[in-house]
Amino acid sequence: MSRRQRRTYSKEFKQQIVDLYLAGKPRAEIIREYELTPSSFDKWMKQAQSTGSFKERDNLTPEQA
Is 25 within the bounds of a domain? Predict the structure, then answer.
């Protein structure tokens, strides 16, 4: 069984995905079209809503900081 290779995405790409969703494109369609994992999509949405940033240090909990 082969493992899925871990991919990294730019902050700009993540923002583009969030913008597509906020413009009304269905979640399932975005995930399928861009070959994303649902957990990545959900994480990006949460980050965008809570801090408006995709920088790692901006999304740390107080315990992690």
Answer: yes
**What one-character-per-residue DSSP string does 2-63 give?**
PPPPP----HHHHHHHHHHHHTT--HHHHHHHTT--HHHHHHHHHHHHHTS---GGGG--TT
pTM to 2 decimal places: 0.73
Q: How far is 42 from 56, CA to CA, in rounded Å? A: 16
Q: Specify if 59 maps to a domain.
A: no
pLDDT in tens, 3-48: 767 788 999 999 999 999 999 999 999 999 999 999 999 999 999 8
DSSP, collapsed to helix, strand or coil, labels residue 65 as coil
Number of domains forming the structure of the chain: 1
